[in-house]
Amino acid sequence: MVVKDQNSDQALELFLKIGLDERTARNTIANNKVTANLFAVIHEAALSNGCERTIGNLIYTVATKYPANALVHRPVLLEYVVSSKIKTPAQLEAAFSFLSNVASENFEKKEFEEACGVGVEVSVEEITQTVNEIFEENKSVILERRYRTNVGELLGSVRKKHPWADSKIAKKLVDEKMYELLGERTAADDEKPSKKKEKKEKPAKVDKKPAVDETPEQPSEEELNPFSIFPAPEDNIKVHTEVFFSNGSVLRCCNTRETLDKHLKVTGGRVFTRFPPEPNGYLHIGHAKAMFVDFGLAKERGGCCYLRYDDTNPEAEKKEYINHIEEIVQWMGWEPFKITYTSDYFQDLYELAVKLIQRGHAYVDHQTPEEIKEYREKKMNSPWRDRPISESLKLFDDMKRGLIEEGKATLRMKQDMQSDNFNMYDLIAYRIKFTPHPHAGDKWCIYPSYDYAHCIVDSLENITHSLCTLEFETRRASYYWLLHALDLYQPYVWEYSRLNVTNTVMSKRKLNYIVTNKYVDGWDDPRLMTLAGLRRRGVTSTAINAFVRGIGITRSDCSIIRLDRLEHHIREELNKTAPRVLVVLHPLKVVITNLESGSLMDLDAKKWPDAQENDTSSFYKVPFSSVVYIERSDFRMKDSKDYYGLAPGKSALLRYAFPIKCTDVILADDNETVLEIRAEYDPSKKSKPKGVLHWVAEPSPGVDPLKVEVRLFDRLFNSENPAELDNWLADVNPNSKVVIPTAYAAPALTNAAVGDTFQFERLGYFTVDKDSTVEKLVFNRTVTLKDTYGKGGK
Question: Where is the Glutamyl/glutaminyl-tRNA synthetase class Ib anti-codon binding domain (predicted)?
Fold first, then answer.
């Protein structure tokens, strides 16, 4: 919903009347969900003519934070707010907590008032006395820390004793007491504590650790089980959504006992969910969260989850996408209860559309898309809205039989054109398309819209929990209006925040554009956040699911998750499962002068860092000969204290082998480019250099090591949120893919198969790509070794 033109002006005028400052009012109008909620709350509280600012601020809080599971009690709370019986934010938060716990059940007025501090008056004198007592208790600490004292902790102590005290008065008194005790703030008060002091204090912290470990912070129930927030199927008789109409009436959405009992008899009381992707593109990491929510809830409750293809648009759907979706769902570890298609229900949907017309809730319209848009913006009814029911029935039948041209008629739901919710503006239920359907064939030339079909099929499949992302929240009204109009069972609807990740785009339109226009190498390009791309890159489904679970099933909108948080989970997984191996990306030749040419030693190298000496399966053989190759970056002509690589006259340890010392350097004609290094090795291993290098040797004299191609992938976009840029394509990272055609690898990789993952020591985790051939293996870098999550990455 987007509030347009005069609607914006009306909203601004109303929001200013209740005392919101202009900035808050304008920001509210930009958020369609909050705008709709605030309109509803203002009208419910009968404050269309305005109110005092203190009351208005509380009204705004009700609109933004009121618990959705207790909407039936919101009018009661608003009476308390308007009458100033509840007059502080602390009281309001307590009311939210109380009502959230009782949900739609009845409650005792006395218990509610006690829980919210109704009638409790805390005088300025009482607050002053408490502030003085707290300052006396903490005087020595405050004098030591001065203005670096945590004022929030002091205010918390005040709130603990007087939970219903006016927080502004408490803050004012605390600030005054700070000034009385400390005087004017000095420059020293604003200086940050020196790092040296922090270091000195560290030992004291270490001493305290055992005590902390004895009583670790317990994770919340939601952290242990993110699905604990969802109600049981038998509870779906409670009101949890209200639809406000412009005529003042209210639809309180819930099932009748008879309807719910009929539903429970079919389902056996089990949870039924659905994962309903449109088969018009490849799934991305956002769908991984949807799968985790839909399949995860069903699995946790011992229920069932449908994989339902939402195939209402025959022009955009392809068999390729259907096959891909089914394959990816299985790869992600989920087992559908049944695979269904919205098109399986086309006959049911048609018959229910006829019933909707017969009940006076739908009509055939002839407006063009441009006219529909204009009339919606002006909140005007279509000229055909009130045509006779019999006429709409005849025309709808003509539409079905192909007697009306495409674009000349639609079936629209007769909802509420004066609603504050744009998604109640007589949404389209059916449109004409003379296009064969990939699944249903050429039987139909009219196709249902998402807004019409989605909720009905949820009901027909006896879905208990209809879970979707927050942009669909304003469609709740339409969802329940339609089910109510048709007397159908109503699932429990709940929305969660979309999963957005930095440095990428995830809209299907943008993804389709960069794939079609060759910015990337197909839908499974390892730089994309498509699940096919992540799989090809070497990311495991378990790492993705751990990432999604760690984020939680939140409702905080507009958040964007840093990519390094996903990479953290990838490393956690691959560190346990990827065997180590030696590979050199940019080889620099080293000739061991004190090892006889043609000599060859087979050395043991560890596949795992904790490999036990008696476990031969944890080791692999690496040849060591008189010609080895190290990374070009591991050699410098000029040494320095903080450099641990090789330099003239300096030693370094070849991992799993011997220390070597550079004795000579062969330069090219330009006298700068290093062509070759001469070195001596220490067979006794008595020297103990600090630097440890990875390396690969010639397996036999004059024979190069195993050559492999390595592809280094980085972020596809330079900006964290490229989708918000006007010229987002200009933000594509030109270095997002770097190909190294000839890297050298240990012989252990010779028989590596597509999908095998390894840790290239000191370089990162790499996976065998599908482009590999018998002649040459191709490796994709999955992720580097360095983990930045937890060091500022959130």
Answer: 578-682
Helix axes 167-182, 124-137, angle to 10 degrees: 40
Determine the Cα angle at 169 with ends 168 and 174, to 5°.
100
- Distance, in Å, from the CA atom of 528 to the CA atom of 508, rounded to the nearest integer, reads 12
Instruction: Report the run of H or E that residue 777 belongs to, with start and end.
Output: strand 777-783
Helices (H), 378-507: 389-400, 450-460, 476-485
pLDDT single digits (tens) 253-307: 889 999 999 999 999 999 999 999 999 889 999 999 999 999 999 999 999 999 9
> Count of H helices and E strands in the chain?
25, 27
CA-to-CA dists, residue 270 to 300, 301, 456, angstroms: 11, 8, 20
Cβ contact 92:61 at 8 Å? yes
Which two tokens mark 241?
């959504």
d(CA 565, CA 793): 7
pLDDT confidence bin for 198, thresholds 50/70/90: very low
581: left (phi over 0), alpha (psi -120 to 50) or beta: beta
Q: Which of 463, 446, 104 is nearest to 297 (CA)?
A: 463
| Cβ atoms 448, 430 nearer than 8 A | yes
508 is catalytic: yes
The pTM of this model reads 0.72
Q: Do residues 629 and 695 touch, judged by C-beta distance below 8 A?
A: yes
Question: Which stretch of DSSP H or E encloses residue 300?
Answer: helix 285-300
Query: What value does the mean pLDDT take over residues 82-105?
Result: 84
Q: Torsion-angle region of residue 611: left (phi > 0), alpha (psi -120 to 50) or beta?
A: beta
Q: How far apart are CA 526 and CA 532, in angstroms?
A: 8
Per-residue confidence (pLDDT) for residue 224, from 0 to 100: 61
The CA distance from 621 to 195, in Å, is 47
**Predicted pLDDT of residue 196:** 44
Return the SS3 of 713.
strand
Pairing type for strands 492-496 and 695-697 reads unpaired
> 598 pLDDT exceeds 70?
yes
Catalytic residue, chosen from 93, 114, 278, 300, is 278
Dump pLDDT digits (tens) for 336-355. 999 999 999 999 999 999 99
Q: Give Cα separations from 733 to 701, 719, 721, 729 (angstroms).
A: 42, 9, 13, 9
Packing angle of the helix pair 5-17, 22-29 (nearest 10 deg): 140
Alpha helices by DSSP H, listed for 46-166, are 53-65, 74-82, 89-102, 109-116, 124-137, 139-145, 151-161
Q: What is the dihedral of CA 148, 151, 152, 155, to 10 degrees?
A: 170
Instruction: Give the active site residue among 26, 85, 252, 508.
Output: 508
CA distance 299 to 321: 25
The separation between CA 472 and the C-alpha centre of its own chain, rounded to angstroms, equals 16
What are the distances in angstroms from CA 316 to CA 136, 321, 368, 435, 438? 72, 10, 22, 11, 10
Burial group, residue 137, by CB count within 10 angstroms (0-12, 13-18, 19+): exposed
Q: CB-based contacts of 214: which residues, under 8 Å, 6+ apart?
A: none
Task: Supply the DSSP string of 535-582, one letter for each residue.
Answer: HHHT--HHHHHHHHHHH-S---TT--B-HHHHHHHHHHHHHHHPPEE-
Please tell me which residue in 33, 498, 510, 607 is annotated as part of the active site.
498
Alpha-carbon radius of gyration of the chain: 34
**Given CA atoms 741, 747, 750, 756 in this order, what sign does their dihedral have?**
negative
CA-based nearest residue to 708, from 675, 737, 747: 747
Long-range CB pairs of 260-269 (<8 Å, 24+ gap) are 260/234, 260/236, 260/489, 262/489, 263/233, 263/236, 263/462, 263/489, 264/233, 264/234, 266/462, 267/233, 267/462, 267/464, 269/233, 269/234
Show Cβ contacts of residue 330 under 8 Å, excluding neighbours closer than 6 positions: none
